[in-house]
Write a structure and sequence with these properties.
single chain, alpha+beta, Deoxyribonuclease I, Chain A, 6-stranded mixed β-sheet, 6 helices, 24% helix
Length: 249
Amino acid sequence: MNSIRARVDRVIEFLERSDTDVLAMQELKCKPDQFPFEPFKEAGYEVEMVGFNQWNGVAIASRVGIEDVSTSFPNQPEFRDKQEARAIGATCGGLRVWSLYVPHGRALDDPHYEYKLKFLDEMANQAQLEMADDTLKLAVVGDFNVAPLDEDVWDISVFEGHTHVSQPERNAFEKFAKIGMEEVTRDRVTNYTYWDYQKLRFPKNEGMRIDFIYASPALAKAVTAAQIDRDERKGKGASDHVPVIIDFD
């Protein structure tokens, strides 16, 4: 998302054009009293969000109801004795959704990197607990800040020795699969989900695939289609990430 206040008009246009029922947002960069609730309300969406300052922030918008809201998950790690606004869960029309903004990690020797690994691990533990109900349609979605395969970056040699592609990060990401969740866009979608604003990365298609949708077995078997809306990276006021979309029966 990269700042909801700067991009709310584009978000509303996307919702109307795509006929989306539930939207998970990350990197809002605002507090609740700064969030533009009114445009969403006018478009027919309820919004629940959590944000503490100009960094981080996550939200879920729904036009099919929103209840059982959690603004963090049990044992969510803190960074420097503070819990950041990086996770929100809600039930929307029978679908349980977690919107995640996974920590970047910064560098392999930075404390933020260990924070990132713990965050992924504990979120997977929470998903596993929720999947004790084998009928639950659960989606864990958002900016994972991990490229799980070499093909998920335009040139793996550029990333050697950096975050996003290290084996511990990839192992932490894969824990979702090990607990029985399925990444439902992998076999249905091509291209990247993120292109840096610098060095003409988007025109050169020098991107990364770091935004994913993990689904519980009950939801995964109901998925009928998936896509990346690459056009949302074009034009004035575009975010550096694009929407990842699934349809399910």
